[in-house]
Amino acid sequence: MDSAVEPGAIESLRAEVTGEVLVPGDDGYEARANIFAYTGHPAVIVRANSDEDVARGIGFAVEHGLEISTRSGGHSNAGFSTNVGGLVLDLSLLDGVEVLDEAERRVRLGAGALWTNVAAQLAPYGLAFTSGDTTSVGVGGLLVGGGVGWMARKYGLALDSLVAATVVTADGRILTASADENPDLFWAIRGGGGNFGVVTSFTVIAQPVAQVFFGAISFAPEETEAVLRGWVSYMDSAPEELTATAMCWPTFGQQAPPLAVMVCYAGDDDAAAALAIDPIRKLGTVVDDQVRLMPYGGVLADANELPPGWQPYVRNRLTPDLTPDLATAMLAEQANLQNLYVEIRSIGGALSLVPEDATAFAHRSTQALIMGVLLGSPEDNEPLMPAYEAFWSAVAPSASGAYSGFLSNVLQSDIDAVYPRRVYRKLAALKQEYDPANVFHLNVNVVPAGADQD
Questions:
Q1: Structure confidence at residue 305 (pLDDT)
Q2: Degrees (nearest 5) of the Cα angle 165, 142, 409?
Q3: Which of 6, 44, 64, 127 is at 20 to 30 A from 262, Cα to Cα?
Q4: Which residues are bridge partners to 174 per DSSP?
Q5: Do the beta carbons of residue 163 and residue 359 sit within 8 Å?
Q6: Exposed (0-12), middle (13-18) or buried (19+): which is 37, by Cβ within 10 Å?
Q7: How far apart are CA 224 and CA 246, in angstroms?
Q8: pLDDT band at 237, cuts 50/70/90?
Q9: What's the CA angle centered on 48, arms 44 and 51, to 5 degrees?
Q10: Are 155 and 130 in contact (CB under 8 A)?
């Protein structure tokens, strides 16, 4: 057995866990060890079937000095959902979706549920929940980071609908976090990521949305700059039911990057949707229009397999001041990187209705999320880093923070951007209370107070 842990210890763990324990060589190990863009080789994987299984897995890792990765859907851009030589807590068996109160739209989601299953289970009730982009993204990682979903401008972040959660802490306690129970922990897990424990279930308020108008509107490449500038200006006055993302595809040698605007109108009123979306259509020459009415689950795309060796380099910044001139500056820098994908998510709207200090996600004045993805292998992208940094230098004067979910190489500057200083200090104090040994450090990490404080 290729493991740093004694076989006898593994057998004892198997006897204690009601789920599944996998080590290298076991059937199913490879599928649970590897994630979307990373290959892992943990010493042991615990597929937890209960909160108690999670607590046992944590205790085992602490006893044997193993790093802990928590995996729900396995889409961590930074590779945090797996590791080499450590322990992976796989939550995929904790995938229940239960409507607790149909009238109040109160729903309990298992942390290992995939968003495609959430959408399918809620559809018969005429409900939806703003979620990740792809069918295979898991509930857990998205909800503790934020959740910039397709109904963000109407209903806010996914975490803004959270009313309670079950959290297993580093010392094995199973706690309820809500406004009434452990409210400090409830504040922290809404934006503080996995720093404070393993969240195994979430109770949320779903949205009363059965169908949406969704799809991409593609424009002639030579009109990209004019259309993008016009789109930026329009979203200032667009109705909050409309959430839209501008996608500037890599040029791959073309003179101008192709542009598509993906739109989601939260509702099934054809006339109202047309009134909201038509101004975008009129910005330039439309070469393809895929917008149509569909169940909310239809907005979730299948995650494409990456070409062999690819490991995209992902970074993002938030801005409260998205302007046409900023859009032009980004296009000018993108022209120097033929493999750079640029995405601008127009958010704002309901995001700003939540007080800045209500959650650990503090960027409530955000108007847009800007993401830049270098497509290719690490070796291919290494010589491109100066031009990539120039792109972010163009964004920097307008940046006000970052989103934890779209980061592949987490630098200290990224952590500083994700957590404003006042938020970081409060999180660090809570980290000292709930995880003083920093057991949960494979994340956008907050160090316990006193360990690195100024």
A1: 77
A2: 130
A3: 127
A4: 168
A5: no
A6: middle
A7: 10
A8: very high
A9: 130
A10: yes
Nearest 5°: CA angle at 233, between 231 and 235?
A: 70
Q: Which residue has the tokens 């990740």?
A: 132
Does residue 22 contact residue 28 with C-beta atoms inside 8 Å?
yes
* C-beta separation of 316 from 414 below 8 A: no
Q: Which residues pair with 262 in a beta bridge?
A: 216, 245
Radius of gyration in angstroms for the set of CA atoms belonging to the chain, rounded to a whole number? 22
Cβ-contact 196, 145 below 8 angstroms? no
Largest pairwise CA distance in the chain: 68
State both tokens at 200. Answer: 């195994």
3 pLDDT above the threshold of 60? no
The Cα angle at residue 52 between residues 49 and 56, in degrees rounded to 5: 100
Q: Are 448 and 434 in contact (CB under 8 A)?
A: no
Give 434: exposed, middle or buried? Use CB within 10 Å, 0-12, 13-18, 19+: buried
> Which residue's entry shows tokens 């109770």?
203
Full 3-state SS string of the chain: CCCCCCHHHHHHHHHHCCCEEECCCCCCHHHHHCCCCCCCECCEEEECCCHHHHHHHHHHHHHHCCCEEEECCCCCCCCCCCCECCEEEECCCCCCEEEEECCCCEEEEECCCEHHHHHHHHHHHCCECCCCCECCCEHHHHHHHCCCCCCHHHHCCHHHHEEEEEEECCCCCEEEEECCCCHHHHHHHCCCHHHHCEEEEEEEECECCCEEEEEEEEECHHHHHHHHHHHHHHHCCCCCCEEEEEEECCCCCCCCCCEEEEEEECCCCHHHHHHHHHHHHCCCCEEEECCEEEEHHHHCECCCCCCCCCCCEEEEEEECCCCHHHHHHHHHHHCCCCCEEEEEEECCHHHHHCCCCCCCCCCCCCCEEEEEEECCCHHHHHHHHHHHHHHHHHHHHHCCECCCCCCCCCCHHHHHHHCCHHHHHHHHHHHHHHCCCCCCCCCCCCCCCCCCCC
CB 109 within 8 A of CB 204: yes
Least Cα distance to 346 among 266, 242, 248, 275 occurs for 242
Residues in Cβ contact with 218 at an 8 Å cutoff, skipping those fewer than 6 apart = 258, 259, 260, 286, 287, 288, 289
Residues 336-348: pLDDT tens digits? Answer: 998 999 999 999 9
Residue linked to tokens 């910044």: 317
**Dihedral Cα 70, 74, 77, 79, nearest 10 deg:** 50
Residues 403-449 pLDDT 10s? 999 999 999 999 999 999 999 999 999 999 999 999 999 999 999 99
Which tokens sit at 155? 């209903």
